[in-house]
Amino acid sequence: MTPAVDDTQPWNALTLLAKDFKPDLATWFATDPARAERWTFSAGDLVVDLSKNLITDEIVGKLIELADTAGLADHRQAMFSGQPINGTENRAVLHTALRAPAASSLIVDGVDVIAQVHQELAKMYDFANQVRGGKWLGFDGQPIKTVVNIGIGGSDLGPVMVYEALQAYVDGPSVRFISNLDPSDLWLQTRGLDPATTLFIVSSKTFTTAETMTNASQARRWLINSLASRGLVDPASDQAIREATAKHFVAVSNNLQSVSDFGIDVANSFRLWDWVGGRYSVSSAVGLSCLLAVGQANWQAFLAGLHTIDQHFQNTAAVQNLPLLMGLLNIWYTNFLGAASHAVLPYQQALHRFPAYLQQLTMESNGKSVHDDGSPVNTDTGEIFWGEVGTNSQHAFFQLLHQGTRLIPADFIGLAKPADQVTEAGLAAHELYLSNFFAQTAALAFGRTADQVRAEGRPEELIPALVCPGNRPTTTILAPALTPSVLGQLVALYEHITFTQGVIWGINSFDQWGVELGKQLATQIAPALAGDQASLAVQDASTQSLITTYKRIKAEPTTSNLR
Question: β-strands 146-150, 198-203: how paired?
Fold first, then answer.
């Protein structure tokens, strides 16, 4: 049985520290001039200031003791060495091998997985160079101008986040992304495209993911119908359809038979391994669309950035180990101070999909209610991760952060330089942008007292509404610029934060069985929507009523003007 984390000496000590805890950041900074320096750390290009968190030396010391008690160092070594730490699926967890240098080696079950990774990378680079160099030609001999990535979950959230973040580095084909089973997603993403210059990447490890394969089939139909309308393909010829598909579809999958059955040449299928979890897969062939957009050199820089933080997490002492410390801070807020959510606030428009990416990484990983041995947990696990970019977020929900009644730790991510070359006026705007970045963390930390409001000459009756209590915890992450390497560093930072929390809670951060039930029920409900009365009869009363209402509404005339 897994030892209960809440029945250890460090946990009990932290419980006592939290019982009468009264944070006072203003006093702490006033009495400790070195606080900012002592709690600022570096990893790669990232400079991270933890000083505005609700921590003392004693609290952090006990958190590190908690990590030691939970065996974090051993768990970390087990992950990096390829032991099957994903117990429910008996799998290793080796996303870190995806970005290890070619000169390194890691033997798992008699196989050098890093050699395998670099063999696949070489195949990806060769393919990318063909597409980017105009040598990969579509069915009628034209080069590819647009890539459409079809995937869902980690096969979508990672690539779309990276593609948006690295827009300043895109010098290859443009990329669009289809993930939602809603047919309007495919319609919107293919609208205006020339099928003769479009390449689809179908990303599914098993090549059976319902949403992905449905969208892939619809995309193939769109391609064939469009080419047929130009007289380029005979839609009645299976051979012609297969030839067109082979020119315009490639796969990221392990299921080569299903890839071939779909019409994709297996030579154009890129491999995933069982030890690559979906939400940890962006540095695998799942990121092929991004490689096509930014090129080999930039992709290698992205992988190098990931590896930089892998090395920091693996080799740095706990007192300076950023992913470990940040994960422990999240434990402190979640389990001892009652925080339920965590805000991530990038002050860089190119990172606008980063909070959504972290939602899957953190909540699918640590949204668990049993230990990795199946016994029930006795503590809260996981956090609700959410956020938005920069000043947009200030004008949306910062009121809650400043004056609300809930404790919401927040990570602020800032870049010293803009994402790309801008005008002199743009540089000035960037300075103004960063002034907001620095001001918000100060305002959240130190607030505004009634006496300060009074000194501003405000009416007495308004003073209670203008007071900001402060002591709202923030972490500030600074980097020089949003380069491919820095983006990789940010991704790996949060991967290892998530891992740290999972180890402390004694849960399996690498399975996701909870998402299966709804999918199973959907397959049972689909026949009822198609009119099968027996399938309808076995549904619960609410679902029966909703299906009946849906069918009635569907049968009513549509009054909107669709274009």
Answer: parallel
